[in-house]
Structure formats: C-alpha cells, structure tokens
Amino acid sequence: MANSPRNTVAQGLLLLVWACAGGAAQASPELAKQKNCMNCHAADRKIVGPAWRDIAKRYGSTPNASAALAVKIRAGGGGAWGVVPMPANPTLSEADAKRLADWVLTHR
C-alpha cells in the first residue's frame, strides 16, 4: 500500500508545493535586482533608500509588517526615511511585492 497510485500522487503534490515555495523564497535577491530595487537599496548600507537591514529592524516586529511593506513597495511614498520618495512600482504584482517584503524582513 505504500506505493499505491494515491500515495504517489500525494507525494508528488507535496514535492511540487515544497519546490515552488522554496523557489519563490530563493528568487527574491534576483527579483530585487530585476526590479531595480538594488539601484537604491543594499543589504547593510544606505544608498538612496535605507538598507534592507534597517528596514527589517524598524518594521520586523510590527504586526502585518510583510503586508504593509508589500503595499509600500507597490505604492511608493516618502517621509519615512528622509526627503527622497520611493517611486511607485504599479506593474509589480502583489505576489512579487509580498515576496520582496518577506525577503527584506529576513535581514534583521
């Protein structure tokens, strides 16, 4: 019974879900580079915008931090880190914005 078609399908689906989730998490540095986030941000130093580490420290313990950062990534805005506003990224999907936000919050 261990090798029944039903078990094989279930194992395959679990493997697929695991692979997709892992791929999404690993894609964030590449996604940040692809979406030009690296033009203004770096892991441990301010360029134009704040360092990923500083963002994670400020917002990491905030309830719903990932969702709030994802909105900020797409909508842009100013005032939180200085006078230079972050440009909006309206063509970035909500899923990619969430993926980037989750990744930024890992820099604590």
UniProtKB/TrEMBL annotation:
<keyword id="KW-0249">Electron transport</keyword>
<dbReference type="InterPro" id="IPR009056">
    <property type="entry name" value="Cyt_c-like_dom"/>
</dbReference>
<feature type="binding site" description="covalent">
    <location>
        <position position="37"/>
    </location>
    <ligand>
        <name>heme c</name>
    </ligand>
</feature>
<keyword id="KW-0813">Transport</keyword>
<feature type="binding site" description="covalent">
    <location>
        <position position="41"/>
    </location>
    <ligand>
        <name>heme c</name>
    </ligand>
</feature>
<feature type="binding site" description="covalent">
    <location>
        <position position="86"/>
    </location>
    <ligand>
        <name>heme c</name>
    </ligand>
</feature>
<feature type="domain" description="Cytochrome c">
    <location>
        <begin position="7"/>
        <end position="108"/>
    </location>
</feature>
<dbReference type="GO" id="GO:0005506">
    <property type="term" value="F:iron ion binding"/>
</dbReference>
<keyword id="KW-0349">Heme</keyword>
<dbReference type="Pfam" id="PF00034">
    <property type="entry name" value="Cytochrom_C"/>
</dbReference>
<feature type="signal peptide">
    <location>
        <begin position="1"/>
        <end position="27"/>
    </location>
</feature>
<dbReference type="GO" id="GO:0009055">
    <property type="term" value="F:electron transfer activity"/>
</dbReference>
<dbReference type="InterPro" id="IPR002324">
    <property type="entry name" value="Cyt_c_ID"/>
</dbReference>
<keyword id="KW-0479">Metal-binding</keyword>
<dbReference type="InterPro" id="IPR036909">
    <property type="entry name" value="Cyt_c-like_dom_sf"/>
</dbReference>
<keyword id="KW-0408">Iron</keyword>
<dbReference type="GO" id="GO:0020037">
    <property type="term" value="F:heme binding"/>
</dbReference>
<keyword id="KW-0732">Signal</keyword>
<protein>
    <submittedName>
        <fullName>C-type cytochrome</fullName>
    </submittedName>
</protein>
